[in-house]
Design goal:
Blueprint: E1 4-10, E2 34-36, E3 39-41, H1 44-52, H2 66-83, E4 86-92, H3 102-109, E5 115-120, H4 127-134, E6 139-144, H5 160-175, E7 180-186, H6 195-202, E8 207-213, H7 219-222, H8 226-231, H9 233-237, H10 249-261, H11 270-273, E9 274-278, E10 282-284, E11 294-297, H12 306-312, H13 332-338, H14 351-354, H15 358-369
Parallel strand pairs: 1-4, 1-9, 4-5, 5-6, 6-7, 7-8
Antiparallel strand pairs: 2-3, 9-10, 10-11
The structure holds S-adenosylmethionine and iron/sulfur cluster (SF4) (2 copies).
One iron/sulfur cluster binds at residues 268, 270-271, 286, 288, 290-291, 324, 327, 331.
């Protein structure tokens, strides 16, 4: 019996090779967090917290390295697997491809899950790594990209060379038939011209684009204007033509509603389907960060049913939390499936929902919730 569909594991959370304008974790202060090759530079309080964690015992030497964090993650996941069952281990960050040794880690763990999903900005990803990972057979990608021009990606990198590299990687992933979800953040730089984006990827098989509005404080600088928001309708009006490369119509309707109203006004069941763990062994209420709060510590709690822990800690799917007001992501598909707004047939183009047993497990978890 699966307790969850996905474990969304945050590796190297504070470390990244980009500084996207909308990324909450990378404010001015985070200039202090840097990974140079394997070595990690961070404020002393960060080093103290990591060293103070029981899970680090016997791993961290005189310096803290990316390899150390990978070893800690391995230890955490061994413990996690004793208490939880889930179909997909998702690795997110920070940026997981800061370390070349991530591939070794993926190879070591992938057989324990139905599938592994890798979220990356795609910049450090190398052709030989993609080929090596594709051989594993049950690993697929999620790449963040806001368009196919430097202008559309101005909140991410705006550098044509980096963009070309990411597009080349995506092409190879498609050729190797690995399945790819593209995370696209809607900002003033791309919302007005999504046509080019969908047209380009409609010619690349196995890719689905998940747009979501920029959320949190970065909205102040980056939110699309009224006219750009009206342009988003292009995706709804042409959904039939581009359905292979787009999520279901109902998902896009919800994105449009948040773009227009800046207010989410429906239930969210995501914390019942997606558990969220980090490199410190903490499990939080929700992976999406806006509704955060630790509910368990994998090293001390034998939590056999995290959903109960989440409910006891005050999460309710029909509350309208202010912290959830502008949140929508690819995980919204769980909400649409739970409430019967879409069916398994509507999500056949989305790699996560093609994985054997996922739709059945969603049905079982739904019975458990109500
Ligand atoms: C924090 S990143 C970590 C993974 C990896 N570095 C990447 O960019 O794919 C996770 C996702 O959140 C998105 N994101 C970051 N800041 C956001 C914001 N303010 N609003 C909406 N999505 C955001 C990113 O584009 C990315 O798809
Ligand atoms: S690449 Fe990902 S983690 Fe890095 S700054 Fe951009 S959104 Fe944040
Ligand atoms: S709306 Fe977003 S932050 Fe709130 S519970 Fe759902 S997924 Fe989490």
């Amino acid at each position: 019996m699966k307790n969850y569909i996905i474990n969304d594991f945050l590796l190297f959370e504070e470390f990244c090779n980009l500084k996207c304008l909308y990324c909450g974790g990378f404010d001015k202060e985070s200039n202090n967090f840097r990974a140079i090759k394997n070595k990690l530079y961070a404020p002393s309080h960060w080093h103290e917290v990591v060293r103070g964690n029981k899970l680090s015992e016997g791993i961290i030497g005189s310096e803290t390295t990316l390899d150390d964090l990978i070893e800690i993650a391995d230890k955490i996941l061994d413990k996690t697997e004793k208490n939880f069952a889930y179909s997909i281990l998702k690795l997110s960050g920070g940026e997981i491809f800061l370390s070349d040794n991530i591939v070794k880690f993926i190879k070591k763990r992938h057989k324990k899950y139905q599938a592994m999903q890798l979220l990356t900005n795609g910049v450090n990803l190398k052709e030989e790594q993609i080929r090596e990972i594709s051989e594993l057979g049950n690993v697929y990608f999620q790449i963040s990209l806001d368009g196919i021009t430097p202008e559309a990606n101005r909140a991410r990198f705006g550098n044509e060379l980096l963009l070309k590299k990411v597009l080349k990687n995506i092409k190879l992933i498609s050729e190797l038939k690995m399945g790819l979800e593209i995370n696209c953040v809607l900002t003033k730089f791309n919302t007005g011209d999504l046509k080019k984006f969908v047209e380009y990827f409609s010619k690349i098989p196995g890719v689905v684009i998940f747009p979501r509005p920029v959320r949190g404080n970065p909205k102040n600088e980056l939110y699309p204007d009224k006219e750009q928001i009206e342009n988003f309708d292009f995706l709804l009006e042409n959904h039939e033509q581009y359905r292979a490369v787009l999520p279901p119509y109902k998902y896009l309707e919800r994105v449009r509603s948040i773009l227009r109203e800046e207010l989410r006004s429906w239930n969210c069941y995501v914390p019942y389907f997606v558990m969220s763990e980090n490199n410190y062994g903490k499990i939080s209420k929700c992976t999406c960060g806006t509704f955060s709060g630790d509910v368990a510590d994998i090293s001390s709690a034998a939590v056999s049913e995290l959903r109960m822990a989440i409910k006891k800690n005050g999460y309710s799917h029909n509350q309208r939390y202010s912290t959830c007001a502008d949140c929508i992501s690819q995980y919204e598909i769980f909400n649409l499936l739970v409430e019967g707004d879409i069916s398994g047939d509507d999500v056949k183009n989305i790699p996560t929902f093609q994985i054997n047993g996922v739709i059945n497990s969603i049905d079982k978890i739904r019975e458990d919730i109500f």
